[in-house]
Amino acid sequence: MPDPALDPPLAPDLRRRRLLLSAAATAAGVSASWPAASADAWPAKPITLVSPYPAGGITDLLCRIVGEELAKALGVAVVVENRTGASGGIAHASVAKAPPDGYTLIMGGSAPTAITPALNRSATYGPKDFEPIAYVAELPIVLSVHPSVPARTAAEFMAYVKANSGKLSCGHHGNGSSNQFACLTLARLSGTTIPDIPYRGAPQVNGDLLAGRVQIYFGTLPTQLPLAKEGKLKIVGATSPARLPTAPDIPTLDEQGLTGLDFTSWNALYAPAGTPRPVIQRLAAEVAKILANPEVKRRIEDTGCIVRPGTPESLGRLTMAEYDNYKRMGAETGIRME
Q1: Mean pLDDT on 164-192
Q2: Cα separation of the two ends of the chain
Q3: Largest CA distance in the chain
Q4: Among 72, 147, 216, 225, which is 20 to 30 Å from 164 by CA?
Q5: Which three-class secondary structure state does DSSP give residue 171?
Q6: Measured distance CA(13)–CA(259) in Å, rounded
């Protein structure tokens, strides 16, 4: 466990994910024998599964994989609908107001469900506007650097950062993004100045990272690993608590002694608040079965994600913990998303 006296105030306490999702191993135990009599008419028509992001992205792909399998399990069509805009806020605001009848679901996640309402005062929704159903998958994040940075390990990297205060810059995806907070946390951990530079997304950050205009980037494994294999950048370590099953040779920052950088992007299934409990339990049970299917797991891992099943209760705790954590960090740093 991290020592609060040693970890800087800005460093997010996302290690709680280990405890919050410790029930994941029992996800398959979510009871499928829910009281059918109280919801025996559900589902009686197609279900809409909303993706907050455009077609072709990771969230959209997860929607289509899970939606396809849910349709088979429930015997009704599951229609994926892309409602984009406002960093996922438009989709979340609309689903929060949808009838809580089990016919509208959303593939939420760390950024749109927790971070956006925590940092955007104009957001019209919050985590309590949704019923958590199931944690689905997470997209691993790795600390990557330009090849000119003479570091292969976290210790070598930190020594170099401390010796070059103000000379290195860290790219991220804009105000309030998790990798911006990773940049800020790194600066606090090292006791140095590290300018954080906003970009539209991974392609833009990587373009400047490869050109040496920025030297540090907390990017996702699928975007960074191919470039590392080509020798165009170096990966210092993963920000996840444990080694990644899809890239077991990459050590975590934690195991190298660099703690306080537990940042992970995740996706999970939610329904509008007030959706009947039997419906939530049925959905949770079906998703647990879906994620336990080896073929489904392979399809999800082909996107670069890692399957992380969990109960509605553990997802609810995680969502609120992330929301509270980013709200605190926003207050400490003055960072907003408006």
Answers
A1: 92
A2: 35
A3: 67
A4: 225
A5: strand
A6: 10
Q: Quick one: average pLDDT of 211-224?
A: 94
311: pLDDT strictly greater than 60: yes
Q: How many CB atoms within 10 Å of residue 28?
A: 13
Strand ranges of the sheet holding 234-238, from the earlier edge strand across to the other edge: 196-198, 170-172, 216-220, 141-145, 234-238
Helices (H), 81-211: 89-96, 116-119, 154-163, 178-190, 202-211
Long-range CB pairs of 244-250 (<8 Å, 24+ gap) are 244/140, 244/306, 245/301, 245/306, 246/140, 246/221, 246/301, 246/304, 246/306, 247/140, 247/221, 250/142, 250/221
Pairing of strands 265-272, 104-109: antiparallel
User: How many other C-beta atoms can be found within 10 angstroms of the C-beta atom of residue 36?
Assistant: 11
| Domains by residue range for the chain, with CATH | 16-138+265-333 (3.40.190.150), 141-238 (3.40.190.10)
**Whole-prediction pTM value?**
0.80
Tokens encoding 37: 């009599």
> Tokens 């950024």, residue?
111
Report the distance separating Cα 127 and Cα 114, nearest Å.
6
pLDDT single digits (tens) 255-264: 999 999 988 8
